[in-house]
Write a structure and sequence with these properties.
The protein is mainly alpha-helical. The chain is 54% helix and 3% strand. It folds into three domains: 4-100; 119-226, hpI Integrase, Chain A (Orthogonal Bundle); 228-285, no CATH class.
Length: 287
């Protein structure tokens, strides 16, 4: 049975279905964890309207003590901030994550995490909608949810692909620059029509389960490596260089006259991926 705290939180979640399906699911998961952790820390019979800074400091401190990564901590705190905004209690947490004891996120790994979509493995997937979703990820660097919910009839603007149903509800434009991108779009639009890449009558949740099973079947993990490959291909196309994660020159070794250009290219790639922050590209490209 849900606690009174979680009962009220669930109402807030239902009234405010912000973000993608994955974001909403993760938000609910984190807020349920908050309820569980606070009970474990001795805060019982907590009501949402009684939530105070001592509760939040306690639960964040507990997470830090577990040795979680900076990225995980920041994501969890972001969901807390979302809840506080909805209940008009934004002042309960300091504006800076550093004030909470959360270290800065380390983006640079210089490890190549790119994956190539192998056609013989793709042939193992019988669903043409899923096959196309994986090809869209490979060709355009789409996120998992985007590659299934995209409506190609509306998204294809000729010289670019307009992504509307995106993480954080930030629409973006991805340039169509290669013949393989154009051929993919032109071959799929006639049979998919005005619908998305989720079969008619199928829920996203159901198709997501099929997608996850297909990833396992093809040995692609979550297929996020396809986005890495897209970013790396774009970097080479725009700079003429391999990225550091692929063994190319690191930023610090570039001639001064190239550094500004590379920084702008990284920002462009970040925008195409739907991030909007240049520093995030270190995850995909290295530094």
């Amino acid at each position: 049975m849900a606690s009174n705290f979680m009962f009220k939180v669930t109402k807030v979640l239902k009234r405010n279905p912000d973000g993608s399906h994955a974001t909403r699911a993760e938000r609910k998961k984190v807020l349920k964890l908050v309820d569980k952790n606070l009970a474990e820390l001795g805060f019982r019979r907590l009501e949402l309207h009684n939530l105070s800074s001592k509760h939040l400091q306690a639960v964040v401190g507990h997470w830090i003590s577990e040795g979680l990564s900076a990225g995980t901590l920041k994501n969890r705190v972001a969901h807390l901030r979302w809840l506080l905004e909805k209940i008009n209690k934004t002042g309960l947490l300091p504006a800076s994550n550093t004030s909470l004891g959360i270290p800065k996120r380390a983006y640079v790994t210089n490890i190549d995490k790119s994956r190539t979509l192998e056609l013989d493995k793709l042939a193992l997937i019988s669903d043409p909608y899923l096959q196309t979703s994986f090809r869209m990820q490979s060709e355009f660097g789409l996120r998992r949810e985007e590659c299934m919910k995209i409506c190609l009839k509306d998204a294809d603007k000729g010289s670019y692909l307009k992504i509307v149903k995106s993480k954080g509800a930030r629409p973006r434009e991805i340039p169509i620059t290669t013949s393989s991108q154009r051929e993919l779009l032109d071959s799929v639009k006639p049979w998919v029509g005005s619908g998305s890449l989720i079969p008619s009558g199928t829920l996203y949740k159901t198709q997501l389960g099929r997608y996850q099973q297909a990833c396992i079947k093809m040995g692609l993990d979550k297929a996020h490596g396809l986005r890495h490959a897209y970013a790396q291909d774009r970097y080479k196309a725009l700079t003429g260089l391999d990225c550091p994660a692929k063994g190319g020159p690191r930023a610090a070794t570039l001639p001064i006259e190239l550094r500004d250009k590379v920084k702008q290219v990284r920002l462009q790639i970040s925008n195409e991926l739907g991030h909007g922050r240049e520093e995030v590209t270190a995850v995909y490209l290295g530094r």
